[in-house]
């Protein structure tokens, strides 16, 4: 079995460990409420989470799920409506989902239960701009922030302050008349703070308008006076205390890989479970570490997770953070190195292309060509030409990135 096959199998195991069908049923309540049960789902795992909820919760379930275009499942036999919307920049379907979810949440009464099902990607998919901000303005802000390479936590800080649903605002509406609230989260954020996943529609967060404005200005985004006012006056309403449970994380996915790899005889090296920062820079740093282990006898597997970013992305660039990391790694390795690697996003989408990530062997890569691809932000066509794209299609989960480096150490 080739190392490429092994690494691909390990990546599949990481995705499976975060599957809603695996992690959600045991977390859901088993009792029947007196009134209605609402399931409100948002994010790249939303459709699958909604389906599992409809199949598992006692009694009839009504609700709404919004997910990325192409990431849906058949919910027609359930009481849950499905909307597919754009990511990472919201569209009119994101706006439709935001308005409908607010309207549905407002109908919950004291005998009802509202189950929030949150996963990464929900920040863009569930959209209801704050009063005074148009959809076009919110789209422009989001696009500028993404292109600036701003960390996702900064982008989501802004999103919480320009929204009528995020930062606990949806939860406040749902609980206004005393409904029971429950939140279950598949985490795609470093540190797994549930309030940060999908910008926390059901979970209260700190109101920090100055921080949000600082992020926009740092990214070079023009902020007219009416948007400044909208951000400053968009104070969230308190959300009732309720059960909030994180049911799957990047750490869980990495643990599944580590367990498999150790059983297969690998020396597993933990290179970090919550890495952030520039993808190519991280790849180059990992190349130095990998070469150190290449001088040590045995088979070594360096694993890492978290969410890296592409900085200085050009308008016509192609290639997400996993390919940037992978090409950055290979650009710093000699072609003779017995090192190969896979990097992929567990949601099946690396950036905005059709690939989950990629696989490369050091022997395939000319360093100067790799550096050119990085400088032009054209890692997708570079890896595609080498036959290294990893295509999974939508996985309907999202616990961020998995990076695996296989290192053949010298023989004694």
Structural class: alpha/beta
Beta-strand residue percentage: 15-25%
Major β-sheet profile? 7 strands, mixed
CATH class designation of the largest domain: Alpha Beta
What's the β-strand tally?
Answer: 13
Estimate the mean pLDDT confidence. 95
Q: Write the element-wise H/E pattern from the N-terminal end onward.
A: HHEHEEHEHHHHEHHEHEEHEHEEHHEE
Under CATH, the topology of the largest domain is which?
Answer: Rossmann fold
What is the helix tally?
15
Termini separation comes to 23 Å
Q: Cα-atom Rg, whole angstroms?
A: 22 Å
Q: Count structural domains.
A: 2
Helix content: 25-40%
Query: Which architecture name of the largest domain does CATH use?
Result: 3-Layer(aba) Sandwich
Low-confidence stretches are none
* Mass-distribution shape: globular
Fourth-level CATH superfamily of the largest domain: Glycerate kinase, MOFRL-like N-terminal domain
Structural overview:
The protein has 412 residues and is α/β, with parallel strands linked by helices. It folds into 2 domains: 3-12 and 251-408, MOFRL domain (glycerate kinase, domain 1, 3-Layer(aba) Sandwich); 19-248, Glycerate kinase, MOFRL-like N-terminal domain (Rossmann fold), CATH 3.40.50. The chain has helices spanning 3-17, 20-23, 46-56, 92-105, 122-125, 135-148, 152-161, 169-174, 209-218, 225-233, 250-263, 279-294, 321-331, 367-375, 379-385, and strands at residues 37-42, 61-68, 79-85, 113-119, 180-186, 243-248, 267-270, 275-278, 299-309, 339-345, 357-361, 389-390, 401-408. The strands form 2 sheets. Strands 7, 8, 9, 10, 11, 12 and 13 form a 7-stranded mixed β-sheet that branches. A 6-stranded parallel β-sheet has the order 3-2-1-4-5-6, with helices on both faces. The mean pLDDT is 95.
